[in-house]
Structure formats: C-alpha cells, structure tokens
Protein: Ammonia monooxygenase
Amino acid sequence: MFVRLLLGFAIALCGSLIAVALHTPLPWMLGALIATAATKIAGVQSRSRTELRYAGQWVIGVGLGLYFTPMVVDEIAGNLLPLLLGAIFSVAAGLAGAWFLQRAGGVEFSTAYFSSTIGGAAEMANLSDRYGGKVALVASAHSLRILLVVVLVPLAFRMSGVTGSGLFAPAMTKVDPAGLAAMFALGAGGALLASRLRIPNAWVLGPMAVTILLTSNDMALSAMPTFMLNAAQLLIGWSLGDRYTPDFFRTAPRFMGLILVYTLVVIMLSAGLSLLLAQPSGIALPTLMLGLAPGGIAEMCITAKVLQLGVPLVTAFQVFRLAFVLLITPPLYRGLLMRFPALRD
Structure:
C-alpha cells in the first residue's frame, strides 16, 4: 500500500512540475490532477488517501480566510442579491439537467437528479444512495463535471489574458511561524467541529470559518507561505485524479457523454448570467464567472487566488450556493415525486 501511495505522489509531483515548466494555469493542481487521472485510466495501480486531501483542504481553508478583512465582509454583505441569484440559477440548471439526463440518457429520475445537481460530489452521491439512485453513475458524473470545470475555466481565463487587480489582498503579507502554527491549530479544531456537525467540505469550511472570524476582527496571525499553498494544490489535484478508474469512460458511455454536454452548457449559461449581473452588481466580470462556475469550492477559490480575481467574493458565491443547494435538494426531490408520481418509473 505504501508503494502505491509513493507511486501516486511521484506521478502527481511530476505532473505538477511539467505543468509549471509549461506555464499552464494552476499548474500545481491541474498538473497533478491530469497526470494522476490519465495514469489511473491507463491502469496504473497508484493511490491517494482521504487524509491527504483533507490536509490540502485544511491549508486552503486557512489561506482563504485571510482575505476576509472587515472591508471585504461589508462588500459581501452588499452583494446578497447576486449571491441568491447565483444559488437559484444552480438549482434551476440542476432541474433542467435532470430532465435532460432522464429523457436522453434513459436513467431513473433519482440518478439523473443527483447527477445534475451542482453541489458537493460526495454529498450528492450519498443522497443518491439514500433515494435509490445509481451511486457509481452519480459519483462519475460529478467527477467529470469537476474535471471539465477545473481544466476549462482556468484555461479560458489564461487564453483570454484575464488577470486580477489584486483589489482584495490578504490581511497579512508577512509569515509569522508562531502565528501560522496557531492558525493551523485553531483551523484543525474548526474542521473537527464541522466534521462532527456533518457540515460538507468540513476541512475547507471549518478552518476557513475560524480564520474569517479572526481576520474580520483584525486579528490575522500570519500570512500563508506560497510553498504550502502549492503543496495543498498538489494534494487536492492528486486526490481528484485518484477517483478515476480504467473503466471510467466505459461505464455508461452515453450517460457520461450527456454529462459532458450538460456541463459545457451550464458553463456557458453561467458565463451568460455573469454578463447580465456584472453591470448592475458592480462586481468584476471574471470574479462573477468564477463565483458562478459549476465547480467545487476549493478548486474555484484556488483559481481565484492564483489569478487574483476577487477571492472573498468567489468564495462567498461558492459557499452560499453549496449551502443553498444542500438545504433545498432533498425536500425539492421529495416534492417533485409527490407532484409528479410518474418520475418514480
């Protein structure tokens, strides 16, 4: 097992280093993700561990919280309407996707519904299992969605030459070893509490909540070293790539093809909504696009940080959407089955 873990790390590190040399966007995450996914699909018996993904998320969570200065918190509070519209858009896109996948893919409604809902991959797979959906298809659908978004969105920004203004900067720029250790210790406590409360993405949201509490009260303890952020990106990319198996694209290929089409359509629709909201909201268009992109919290926030595209606002959009979707998805599913009993067939 240790040999397979070491092999996985070596593949992920080589992928990241190659991506750095090629100057690709998000090289430490995308390089590790693509190299790991490609070799896993090819049949290489490497592996990662959940604890390593948690470690990467822990670092990212603490680092993201450093952007939430009092001024930034006020900025977010003034943009609650765009946050709500973004969350509603995600739910509407998920419902449209469920109809599309059921009709075109020939799968039962529960599988289609939880495959198309833009929420946490693990949470949607668990809900699918609870309501009788095909867990393997749901998990594969979300893996493909995240892969497409994480690769295509940063690449589109790089090709278009979009860069940030650095308007939202971390509360501190100097690394204080004692302060950094204290932040990680407090962040671990936040993560464990969030896990105990069964909050999704606990190792991102728990540490982030603790750091936000400190930073928003002008109590930031240290900056985050760049090498730690790079290592965290590598661990997350490695973990994402490790989800793939040799039979990934052979499992219901028609269904996976439809997921690809659905994801591309949602990316384009989210870009269109960003164009509509940019002027009335006063939020920069690239920030809105990342905030509304149908990716994961950690991945989209890493993109925002690397490209300096309004990290706090992107984080707020992604967290607000996740909370909204997780709250509304189960009762909405049950309500649809009661209103349309034919969906059970």
